[in-house]
Structure formats: C-alpha cells, structure tokens
Amino acid sequence: MTDATGPIARQAGSRSLLTPDARTKKRNAAEARFRAYGVAAIVTAVLALCFLLFTIIRDGHSAFQQTYASIPVTLQAEIVDPEGNRDPAEMAKVYSMSYGRILDDALTQWIEAEGIEIEGLEASDIKGFFSGEAQATLRSQILADPELVGTTVDMTALTSSRVDGMFKARVTEESAARDAKTSPAQIALANAMKDRGALVTRFNTGFLTKPDASDNRAEAAGIGVAILGSLYMMLIVLVLALPIGVAASIYLEEFAPKNRFTDLIEVNISNLAAVPSIVFGILGLAAFINFAGLPRSAPIVGGLVLTLMTLPTIIISTRAALKAVPPSIRDAALGVGASRMQSVFHHVLPLAMPGILTGTIIGLAQALGETAPLLLIGMVAFVSTYPAAPPEGFFDPASALPVQVYNWTQRADPAFFERASGAIIVLLVFLLCMNLLAIWLRRKFERRW
Amino acid sequence: MSMRIITTSALAIIAASATVATAQSRDQIQVAGSSTVLPYATIASEAFAENFDFPAPVVEGGGSSAGLKQFCEGVGEGTIDVANASRQIKDSEREECAANGVANIMEVRIGYDGIVFASDIDGNDFVFTPTDWFMALGKNVVVDGAVQENTFTNWNEVNADLPDQEIMAFIPGTKHGTREVFEEKVILQGCEDSGAMAAFAEANGGDEDKAEEMCMEIRTDGKSVDIDGDYTETLARIDSAKNGIGVFGLSFYENNTDKLKVATMSGVTPSTETIASGEYPVSRPLFFYVKKDHIGVIPGLKEYTEFFVSDAMAGPGGPLSEYGLVPDPELAATQAAVAEEAVMQ
C-alpha cells in the first residue's frame, strides 16, 4: 500500500503548493476575471445612476428658485373701476387681463424714477416682464379690499419665465437676441433692477404648493395639486390593498387547503404581478369609469386602479413573510391550546409584520411612480383647482406627480422642462423616504431565528 | 388591533365613497380633445377660474378624434361637456353623436393655427414651395415626364435654389390632425403644382382618386420620419440631427425662436399677420364643440364658452394670440352665435 502511494506523493511533492500549476493558474485567472466583470457591472450601474441623478439635478434644481420683482404699483381707478362706484360686483367685471396695463405703467414709472436708460427697450419688453399670474394676484387683492383703488402699494410679483430664466442660465444674451419673447434690452433691464434690489431670486415655495398653470405662465406652475392627488391615491391604495392583501395571504398561507384550486389562484397571483400596468388602466377605464360611473380624473379611480396593481405585490411579500415565521411558533401556540386564528393573530402575524410592511411600502412606492394606467383614466388633465378634503376630495379632479412630469415635458415653453425635472426630484425624494422607512421598519422589528 | 382599525377604516371609506358618489353632482366643466387646442384651452381655463366664481375647467388632451369620440358617448354628467378639435367634426361623428342622444351641438371656431417648417437656428435658410416638399417627400415623383420612385437625397436636387443639404424631414405621425393639413395643403398642393398629379392620373388611366392617393404617399426610405409624439420630440430630433427640418405649430415655434429658424412657404414668412390675412397658405381653423344640453346643468358652461371667444381672450392682443393663436377676423359672428346658443344644423 505504501508503495502504491509512493509515486503520487512524490509527484505531489515535486512542486510546492505555493507555485500554482497551469490548471490552478487557469482557475485563478477565471475567478479574477469573474470578479472584474462583477466590479465592472457595479461600476456601470453606479455610473448610470450618477449620470441620471446628475442630469436630473442639473436640470431641475433651478425649479426651486424663482425670481420676483417688487416695485410700487399705482392702482389706477380708471382701469380697475371704470364706473367709479367702488362696487365689488362691478369691479369684478374687469378681467385680469386689463390689469396688465397697471403693471406695465408701474414698471415704466419705476424705470423713469430710477433714471435707468436702456437702449432698445421696447414696449413689448415691459409688457412681457411680469407673469400673467401677477395680474390675477393684483385683481384678487383689489376685489378683496376695494379701498386700495387709487392708492400706490408695494407689490411683489412673479416675473415671466424668460426673465426668471436670465438668472438661471436658461436665457443668455445670445439666445435672447434670437428669441421673439425676450430681448437683450430686457436682460439689461432685469440686471438693472437686480442691482437696485427690485429683483430677487429666492426659494420657490409656490413650486411645491401651487397648482399647475397654463402654457403662458410656466413661472407660476407648481405641483401642489399633483402632490395632493398622489397622496389621496396612496391613502386609498393603503387602506384597500393592505387589508385585502394581508387577509388574502393569511387565508392562503395558513388556512386554505392545498389543492388544484388554490394552486391555480397562486399561479394567477404571480402572473398578475407581472402584468403590464397599462392593462390595469384599460381595466379601470372599462370597470370604474364606463361601468360604475365614477368621475374621470378623480383620485378614487386612480387609487382603485393602483390598488389592483399593488395587490399581487403585497400578497406575494406577505406570504413570503408568513412563510419565514418558523413552524415551531405555530406548533407552540397550538400546543398550549390556542385556536388556529389565535395562533395566527397573536403570534405569527406580529412576527411577520416587518416583512408585510416592507412589502406594502415597496408596493406603494411602485404605485406612486406609476404613470401608464393613469393616462387612460383622465389623470393627465390640466387641473388648476385643489381637490377638497377627503372623502369628497377623492371624487374631485386631481393630477398625480408622475403624470405631471409627463404633462410638463410636452409643453412648448422651455421653463416647463426645468419644472418637470424639479418634479422628478420631488418624486425621487418621496420614493427615497418611503424606501428608507421600509428599511428602518425592517431593521427595527426584524427577528432572526 | 391594528388590523381591526384598518379594516374598519377601509369599510368606512368604501361606505363614505359610495354615499358621496351617489350624492355628488359635477360642478366643474370637463374638456377633452386636440392637443393643438390644449394649450389655448388651459389658458382659457386658468383665466376663466380667476375671473369668475366657477372652478377651473378640467382640460385633457388626447387628440381631436379621441376627444370627439368621448364627446359623442352621450349626454349627462358622466360625459364630457366640451370637445376641442383641430378640424371640423365629421359627418360620421355627428351620426354617432345623434345615435347616442347628443343632438344639440354648438360649434365654436376660436381662431386659426399656422403650420410652419423650421430647422436648426444655425443651419441654412430655406425658401420652400409646396412643390419642393412633394418632390422631396413623395414616394413617386415625375422626372422628365416619367413616373418613378423618389431617389432625391439632397434639397438642391429637388430645387436648385435650395441649399445643398441632405433631405431629412420630421413630419407629424398619422394620428395627428396636423398630418392631414400637411398632406392636403403641402403635399397634395405640390403634387398638383408640379404637374405630377396629371401624370399619375394618366398612368392610372384617368383615375383621379387613385392619382390623389399616389400624391399623398410619403417615401419610406428614412428621409422622412413620422413623429408620433408632440413638437417637443420634433425639436429634440432636430437638436440631434442638425440637418433635419421639422413641421411645427406656429405657437410652438414662437416659443422656441431661439432654437429654430423658420422657412418661408411660397415666399411668405409665417406669422399671425400673414396667416390671418390668408397669405401664408398652410393654416387651419381650430374649433371646440359644446353640448347645448349641458348648459344650465353644468355650472358655468355658457360663461366659459362666451369667455373663451370674448375679445379679451381670443381677440388680437389677448392671451391666446399672445401664445400663438391667429385671431379669427369673424370673431364677432362667433360671439353672436354663442350668445344665442346656435346649434349646428
């Protein structure tokens, strides 16, 4: 026997373990290559993510800043109250468009008073300086307080998207010279105003709170209605999908007999999770709007559609969480005389909760970013009125964050592109918060066996 | 415990929703239709809400045909009140409407929209005629009297006066109303002007319908690209392919004059003035349609309609013309028709 091992031992002993032979070298090289591929994959993914974040933040950060002008405005009686009776009902007949002249005159007077002289400054540069929103603000101020007529007030007003763009590098001397809606003279005017402190660029709270604005007023557009609409929809999804999903998975996992029928249900649920979301939109249009007669563009319909879409995700993750609870827990509970329902509700469910919550939050996050099904049920509408408080508000028209982004990318004014990117940033922040919450819940309540 | 709260609140929401749904009547106007009219409708909606005590109308896009289809689904609060259209309603659509009980329709013309041809701001200048476009984009062209497949690759081959630049056109896809106008007022016109129509008719034994069809066939060898998205996509394409020429709405061009250079058509530069006077050939009227039966049911519908076509909105210098709408010279007649709620016959 020793003879037989002799040559092998000699062969093995002929080389040191520290000097690898050709095959080992080959295996080591293969491993090194595989690791390099892995690192390359991660680097690619990280680079793609960085590029994405970089472009979005580069394009969108300026949406959070806005330029306002503040100058004294004389509220000329002959424009705001042509009848001279100071009767709010009569004054309400003067459309906001007429208030543009008040602002134009105020700016002209201010330029004269400050002694600013700009070559080539035309009437159109003055007319296009303020946002249309400023006229509307002025009008509602005067209607609320008719005493103001004839007086001079200091007014802080939104400037137009072109003027705003001058302080965001969107409008340059070069582009202004070619642009029909602005001019180098308008840039000079804006700079002169800035030097005298009549123009300030500050944080844009309106972007987060105001409703969408028309194509003429990119500077006034905000995501207030979209945030409310998304919030309402998430509430509906949470309140409907969580109990239905959890009840369905508890029954399937803990009580249902294992037979063909439950197998069929299981396969169907897994398949539903992979169904393209647009299909749910078509379903929602047919079932909730055309059949059930629910209103278009309403968060209730969006919420119901997203509930259908989120259910499979919640059911699958809940079942996984329930499965992860060791059988010994159930056995122990049953062993001391608990009923099956008691064992589930007193022992299994609390232990599965972190997993269920994580699944729910991930499902919600997915629903928050969903656009396609909402296109079909009228959520891509122009909605500039806030929905009421729930539950009536669920039936009022509203927008949703991802849909607002889609909507803004299609508008002609380049300022909307900046706002679309800004809305993406807000959406990403929400998603990040939800995912962080999911991680925190998991870490806090997770138990290992 | 938490389960019970969630279940109870779910049931409560469903119950509350059901009662609200049955009790609620719609108090805001609903509008859908043409994406060309959409910006004007949003401007009108916004101004309407700030000048009247009604909530802002909800405006959806989706295209003229889709809007009119929704419009014709029936009468009642579950259906839309106004359909925007960049073309006139078709007879087939009116029949569909009538079959569903939508009998009293008010047609409102808000103004005109120009279709312009524009290229990158730093590129060559173009002076087009419809013939140039037909010769460049038609699937079949007539060369030396013979009908043949289009093989032109550069604009100067089509017309020696045009610059030596590769033919690359971004035209609206077939689902757009703009495509119809483009085919009719540019391609078909060019086909007739160049005499190709007569040649096609001859080749088909005098069949003029067939000739017209041949005229409107667009080449498919990649020189002409259909854009199914909107003008922002066309602009992005031109941005990446500097030698491209795109078809835009006048209002879109006017908002992006720092990036685009507009071409003249038959010697006329497009502008609200030249379109209003009829000199610039490629334009079309814009409409919206109102269900008369909804006036008095949906609050503010009549006021919205009147406000939309008022001089302050749709007239020269109003917010709509500021955005690029060409004011209708016969606006007064439209206003009168709206005031007396005249329906289509």
UniProtKB/TrEMBL annotation, chain A:
Cited InterPro entries: DUF3333, MetI-like, MetI-like_sf, Phosphate_PstA
Main location (coarse class): membrane
Record-annotated ABC transmembrane type-1 domain positions: 227-438
Family as reported in the entry's similarity comment: Belongs to the binding-protein-dependent transport system permease family. CysTW subfamily.
Protein name: Phosphate transport system permease protein PstA
Organism this protein belongs to: Paracoccus albicereus
Membrane-topology annotation of the record: Multi-pass membrane protein
Sorted UniProt keywords: Cell membrane, Membrane, Transmembrane, Transmembrane helix, Transport
TrEMBL record, chain B:
InterPro entries according to UniProt: PBP_domain (IPR024370), Phosphate_ABC_transporter (IPR050811)
Signal sequence interval, chain numbering: 1-23
Keyword Protease: no
Coiled-coil ranges (or none): none
UniProtKB keywords: Signal
Keyword Signal applies: yes
Residue stretches making up the PBP domain: 20-311
Pfam families: PBP_like_2 (PF12849)
Record-given protein name: Substrate-binding domain-containing protein
Organism: Paracoccus albicereus
